[in-house]
Amino acid sequence: MQFRTIDTKNDRDTIITFRRDSFMVSYGSDEGLGDEDAYVLLIEERVRKFPEGLVLVEEVGKIIGQIELQIRNYEGRDIGYVNLFYLIPEFRGKGYGLKLLEYAENFFRKYLVNEYHLKVSPTNVRALRFYEKYGLKKLKEEKQKNVAWRMIKELETTIC
User: The pTM is what?
Assistant: First the structure.
């Protein structure tokens, strides 16, 4: 498995497709997805800040997933934040998700943050079970365009 920084010019269609599918899986529709061009510009900006945090996942030359990670401020402290974990359907439930999670946790440790957060739809039971299995806990329910649970995991920041 390899991780490579997103190149918005060459990967535009892929990242838009993956984002749309993530909305479908999470919320049952792509309503609230927003403007594609604005999303691509946001990814370009984040790649400049965290090139190793915005990556496509490849297995045997095939793009199978995407990760979007960043460091952001939350209630006066820096935290790691997962904007997106995505795997194409045929790679779900086969251990690849754990590899994405490990990549993310190593990224956050590099930035010496003590915790990371992500949001997940409460109807995405498969994702909820996965996150809970690997130590994330529900922090609170939030509502923007859709209801989501903010989940948290505290990290040891010692780099091995």
Answer: 0.92
* Residue 157, pLDDT score: 64
Q: Which domain holds residue 24?
A: 2-154
> Please, is 81 exposed, middle or buried when counting C-beta atoms within 10 Å of its C-beta (0-12, 13-18, 19+)?
buried
Residues 6+ apart with CB under 8 A from 124: 25, 26
Q: Which helix (H) or strand (E) holds 77?
A: strand 77-87
**Beta bridge partner(s), residue 74:** 77
Note whether residue 79 is domain-resident: yes
Query: What pLDDT digit, counting tens, does each position of 43-63 carry?
Result: 999 999 999 999 999 999 999
- Closest-CA residue to 114 (of 84, 147, 75): 75
CATH number (domain holding residue 140): 3.40.630.30
